[in-house]
Amino acid sequence: MRRFVATTATALPGPARSIKDYLALAIATCGVGYLPLAPGTWGSLVGIGVYIVVRGAAMQFFFSAGAGRNLTLLHVYYGGDRD
Question: Cα separations (Å) of 81 from 14, 22, 70, 74?
């Protein structure tokens, strides 16, 4: 009869975190992936918020630049030629 002996596994200590690691964590949605409840959902919400802010700023820039050149909404938004 064989006997199995339970062994304990220990994790090896990893390298110390550098400033690059903390910077990457701050850039990557400020660490919301580490929240204990639904981390993917919170990360997606942060991504949607960033998209809305960036798109709004880009559209404001393009529309104001287009207004200075007498372009219509279709020219600015879809990149059409001005006839």
Answer: 57, 46, 12, 9
Residue 74: partners with Cβ closer than 8 Å, 6 or more residues away: 80
71 contact partners, CB below 8 Å, separation of at least 6: 82
pTM, to two decimals: 0.53
Q: Which of 49, 29, 53, 48 is nearest to 39 (CA)?
A: 29
Rounded distance, CA 54 to CA 75, Å? 20
How many residues appear in the chain? 83
Q: Which range has the top average pLDDT, 18-22, 54-58, 70-74? A: 54-58
